[in-house]
Amino acid sequence: MRAVSVRNGKGGADAMFIDANVPDPVLANESILVQIEAFGLNRMDIMQREDRYPYPLLPESGKIMGVEFSGIVEKCGEGCTNRFSPGDKVFGLAYGGAYAEKIVVSEKMLMLLPPNLSFIEAAGIPETFFTAIQAIFLVGNLQPGQTVLIHAGASGVGQSAIQLARLGGASKIFTTAGSDEKCNLCKSLGAHFATNYKSGGDFAQLVEKETNSRGVDLIVDLVGRNYFHQNMKSAAMDSRMVLVAALSGSKIDDFDLRALLNKRIWLMATTLRTRDAAYQGQVRDVFLEKVMPHLKDGEVRVTVDQVYSWKDVADAHKRLESNVNAGKIICRVE
């Protein structure tokens, strides 16, 4: 089959090319072979391309990038249930291998494509919404009426988290983004307040003002170092902070642990790709219960920033690296 490879094993965006001599994936007993129609881009793909992925990859990850996709079921393993059949339109999450014409994944990680969603839209759902489900519900334990601060609100995970917080009954949703356009997008998805950090906005001051100095109950952080001290100021007593990524760096300068003790802050971290299939299957089930009905009726949506042919995957990566996108970048497999 054809798949996206990287010359010499690592490099910049222009090192990627479509390799026509990649072995077909092997169908396992309880897995499903899917012909891929589209795949979504994530920042982990950039790190994998550059051979600096910070977490241990499971053997299932392989060398081919890409963890979310949409497509058509081609064949089911003998040990599969009757949930899927050849010809079904599906979308799902994988440990890797989505930048390709075909992929083999566990049936636990597949979902049927709702009639109102396109392959393009569906390819941008699994990684972002599954990660947001962890941050908001499974780890963050958001309760109705609580307040939440979500960083990188215009990112795929950020947009998903905003909508999940709204569905979860958050009383006030604060977010940060890098332009007025992105801030307006966050508000259209359910955020009550959005701070443009590039124009000098101070989210900690806004949180203090709008919560009468109480702070927020839950912080979902994808930024890391640059926001850590302000996060401590924004946190309420007995609040929770879930670290999902560290885009600005992972080392905190001059951090006093007393800041955690004084407010009894629960500091937690979560990743998705390094979880086993059983756990990821549980996240999928939560998605089907809490999110899928709202995707079907249009209450929850996926913002697609731009669509590329997979032949132009280098341009797609460059756009993601530039941080100008507001929503998911998707590649069509042609």
UniProtKB/TrEMBL annotation:
Domain Enoyl reductase (ER): 11-331
Any one GO molecular-function label of the UniProt entry: NADPH binding
Keyword Mitochondrion annotated: no
Keyword annotations: NADP, Oxidoreductase
Pfam families xref list: ADH_N (PF08240), ADH_zinc_N (PF00107)
Protein name: Enoyl reductase (ER) domain-containing protein
Family matches, as CDD domains: p53_inducible_oxidoreductase
Listed Gene3D superfamilies: Medium-chain alcohol dehydrogenases, catalytic domain, NAD(P)-binding Rossmann-like Domain
UniProt cross-references to PANTHER family, sorted A to Z: QUINONE OXIDOREDUCTASE PIG3, QUINONE OXIDOREDUCTASE PIG3-RELATED
